[in-house]
Prior knowledge:
The protein is of the alpha+beta class. The protein is built from five helices and ten strands, in the order αααββββββββαββα. Helix 4 packs across helix 5 (179-192). The model is unreliable at 1-36 (pLDDT under 50).
Amino acid sequence: MSQIVTATRALHFHSPSLVAMAMAIALMVATSMANATTFNTNDEATHDHWQSMTLSLGGERHYRAVETHSYSDATLSLNATSGVCDLPWLEMRVTLEQQQGESRTVNLVPTRLRIDERPVVDTMAEFITERGDDGFYAHFYLSGLDSLMADMRQGEQLFLGFDQEEREPWYMTFSLKGADAAINRMLTQCESSGP
């Protein structure tokens, strides 16, 4: 994984549209930084290869559907925040060898996402590290997340491909067995939590 971080440091995208896109989801990314803080995990439930849970700290509540089955050092999750349940986000976390010394955006990388044999979704992923956290996060810029969630509920596998310039793309595959129940529970818990 450290090779991925090193390799992506060299990639830089200065497109004004990408800058605008990054600014538009700044709130989402700031909200998802909950990973760097230690939250209490409550109401855990297992759904085949997926889990659903509530993350809480003080009055802050996040709801998560997460796949931890496919890799020992990586997770894929759908997340929602109380009060803005209609704005969920997709995130991947890879465990690194050591805790990171600073919070920073490593890069913005072209990414392909596909569920089973459905059409490929071309998007961008923002690679992020958080100070004091041993995780490397990929936040996905997705405009059709409702459609993607519907496909995840019916699919068997989610495929990710991250561009690495001249190097071969970095591919990952996550199981969707149990995603339907985990996503439904995550959304139900979020919506019932109130504003």
